Amino acid sequence: MTADGERRFDVAVIGAGIAGLCATRELAAAGLEVIVLDKARGVGGRMATRRLADAVLDHGAQFFTVRGADFAGLVEAAAAAGRVARWCDGFSRAAGVEGPVVPAADGHARWRGMQAMTDLPKFLAAEVNAGGAEVRTQARVVGVATDGERVRLEIEDAAPLAVRGVVVTTPVPQALDLFAAGGLLTDPAGGIAAEARRRLATVAYDPCFALMLALDRPSCVPAPGGIQFESGPISWLADNHLKGISPRPALTVHASAEFSRTRFDDPPDEVARTLRELAAPWIGSAAVVEQSLQRWKFATPTVVLDAPFVVATAAPPIVCCGDAFAGPKVEGAATSGLAAGRWLGGALACA
Known about the structure:
- By secondary structure, the chain is of the alpha/beta class.
- Helices cover 29% and strands 30% of the residues.
- Strand 15 and strand 16 form a beta hairpin.
- The two termini are 20 Å apart.
- The relative contact order is 0.20.
């Protein structure tokens, strides 16, 4: 605690997605005082869920797989707590949005949240809260700077925060913007090392539109509720009722990377209308009760670094991690966060 009763933190984690919460898990286990800051109203990042009428729709990450031991341990704990479940062993596939659909099962489990994809990050947030970490949402970090032996975070509409170390889990272009705002890209003495800056600058992402449609009757999507399209303007389509999370039929339509890049700045109503028309074969005779369009600017990393994290500055330590480090998707983000948390915990223990 400070002299005026404010809690003093050792580490700040920027982002309450799966990478940030996994990093926090490791840092709290190392005995450090940790605060997690996220600009959103809730945790999860791109493991995102929305409600339309009485429908529940996952509109970011749609599922996750489990391959490594570290992530398997987290998933086993969440499954034992009733927060995640196996969805299926593969999805239907089609060359394009018109079909035909070919059933597919490769024997490898695809997992989902029991009620929504946010269930896994909510499980982790509750765990780290119980371990003493503080998770603060609706807290937008607008700049990251170094100040002697501490890292200084500028927070919108709040007092600055000074900590011994920082984990940055935002998409890399947003991380670089935070460093630029704090002068870390121009300070030759205390800024980001040239090699770290070069590596971070190579990361690239594809955008994605997610159209959500609540329906009045079942869709034409076959079980288990997901179709992957190999080409064309739609890349993925899921029925959240068949998935097991929505009380009514509700479709999530992901546009392809090419469509999303080309139409990214178009009026949202026009984009939604086009995607709805394209998805018509799978809507069938159902009426759309309500719809919503989400625009993900940094949806999928297309250039992934070959390390689980990048140390931006060593003293004081700032480390970047997430799904663009050593493996994309949910498990990649989780294992990146775990590795970054372990590194920073060790670095601060030796300081």
